[in-house]
Specification:
Layout: E1 5-9, E2 33-37, H1 39-42, H2 47-57, H3 73-76, E3 95-97, H4 99-104, E4 110-114, H5 124-140, E5 147-151, H6 155-167, E6 171-176, H7 182-190, E7 194-198, H8 202-215, E8 218-220, H9 226-232, H10 234-242, E9 250-254, H11 259-273, E10 282-288, H12 293-299, H13 326-335, E11 339-343, H14 345-356, H15 364-379, E12 388-392, H16 400-408, H17 430-441
Parallel strand pairs: 4-12, 5-6, 5-8, 6-7, 9-10, 9-12, 10-11
Antiparallel strand pairs: 1-2, 3-4
């Protein structure tokens, strides 16, 4: 069957553009583009046939279809030839139950979608495999692209560096100097990227990389490029598949540049349009209060974006005051009866540590989502009979300093850590160890 997709303007301007065309905004109105699939062709297979195909491919050994993204090849980038796919078996991540955390909140079924267990340690792999694969095909067909470039607060740069290196394509990363974790900085360095640390914030880096992409023959890899979102939308498809082709009542996701929520919405909309599910979940976008223009817009009845100068936050990857995908995010949240909430630094730190007691090791951005869930439960907006999925966007191992600071009590942003745990220091005597054991387990 001949499946196809193309770029189209999110504002509805006439015209479509091939996925291999170097284009990021509508030439008519300047708005962002989105990938639109030929749903008529996709409907030539029944929803039962799609479920069966996706089930056969799920975590299989044969590459690339064991990938959580490329197992949905026809729904992602159907014109991309298999030999150009650059995959590291991204996706296929676990839905982890957190029963004690849920019970403490007065909730029932709460699960965390562990997107951070992907190759480079974040959900950004899901989009980067699509973008880099498409660039590989573009170069193979003669397009003169020098490199792929991104602005990043950490995770995007790691994903780009990994997939570009695997494809044999040069990568350029522009980072805000001194504002990302050491673990995040070292990943693109280790994989050979040209790393430019600039004395600005993420929004400043984003302005620079857009200018480079328009003038210097490099391909833009940030989420304003809708190819990224095609990979990220598979999170929604995976969730439904893992729940027996059901959707949860709520999905809570952290938001910075806001491509993630529009991708999540696109995935659920595609499932609904092709008959694999019969309803939409509600969506909550969680933001750190220090960088929360979407939450401000929601509080004002979805007012126009008011860019802010983002303040320093423990959730550094979402320290973004002028999100590129704002319009897409608002559109998705309106369609999904969604909400946007801001949480404090202390709230995100405590929520992260609270959920860790169920065996997780959460990053601070997931802490933002968990703190928003805590607020929604306290308000009674989410109830015990509702199923909730929290999207964990990155591995906590990238943020070990955040964990150490929390449990040592040295985080200025969390002066009274509720779930702090420290080692009990003892002399080398059995009676002292026994006493500490009995006291600690009482």
């Amino acid at each position: 069957m001949a499946f196809s997709a193309e770029f189209r303007c999110i504002a509805g301007c006439a015209g479509g553009y091939p996925l291999e065309q170097v284009i990021y905004r509508c030439p008519t109105c300047g708005d962002l583009l989105e990938v639109v699939h030929d749903l008529t062709a996709l409907r030539e297979r029944s929803h039962a046939q799609w479920k069966d195909l996706f089930g056969q491919r799920w975590r299989q050994v044969e590459e690339p279809f064991g990938s959580g993204v490329w197992g949905k090849h026809e729904w992602v980038a159907p014109q991309l030839e298999s030999q150009n796919i650059v995959s590291m078996l991204e996706g296929g991540t676990h839905l982890t139950r957190v029963p004690r955390f849920a019970a403490d909140l007065g909730l029932g079924d709460v699960r965390v979608k562990q997107c951070g267990t992907s190759h480079s340690g974040s959900f950004k792999d899901l989009g980067m495999t699509v973008l880099v694969s498409m660039v590989k095909q573009m170069i193979a067909r003669g397009q003169p692209l020098k490199a792929i470039a991104c602005a990043s607060t950490g995770d995007t740069s790691a994903a780009l560096a990994a997939y570009a290196a695997a494809a044999g394509i040069r990568s350029v990363v522009i980072l805000p100097r001194g504002k990302i974790s050491t673990a995040q900085l070292v990943q693109p360095l280790a994989m050979g990227s040209l790393v430019l640390a600039v004395d600005t914030d993420f929004d400043g880096c984003m302005t620079l990389v857009q200018e480079l992409a328009s003038k210097e023959g490099v391909y833009l890899a940030n989420s304003m490029n809708s190819l990224r979102l095609e990979g990220q939308k598979t999170v929604a498809i995976e969730i439904a598949q893992q729940l027996g082709w059901q959707v949860p009542d709520w999905v809570v996701i952290p938001g910075g540049n806001l491509g993630n929520v529009s991708a999540l919405g696109a995935g659920f909309e595609m499932l609904l349009a092709l008959g694999l599910v019969d309803k939409r979940p509600r969506i909550c976008v969680a933001q750190a209060a220090h960088a929360s223009p979407l939450a401000t817009s929601f509080q004002k009845g979805w007012s126009e974006l008011e860019p802010v100068k983002a303040k320093t936050t423990l959730a550094s990857a979402i320290q973004i005051g002028n999100p590129v995908s704002f319009k897409k995010a608002v559109r998705a949240l309106k369609a999904f009866d969604g909400v946007a909430l801001a949480v404090s630094e202390a709230e995100l730190a405590d929520a992260s540590a609270h959920a860790d007691r169920d065996g997780l090791f959460t990053d601070p951005h997931t802490g933002v989502a968990l703190a928003a869930l805590t607020k929604l439960a306290a308000r009674g907006e989410i109830t015990r009979d509702q199923r909730v999925i929290v999207i964990s966007t990155a591995s906590g191992l990238k943020f070990a300093d955040f964990k150490v600071g929390y449990h040592e009590g040295t985080l200025a942003e969390a002066k009274a850590p509720r779930y702090r745990n420290t080692p009990v220091e003892l002399p080398p005597r059995y009676d002292a160890v026994r006493e500490a054991l009995l006291r600690g387990l009482d």
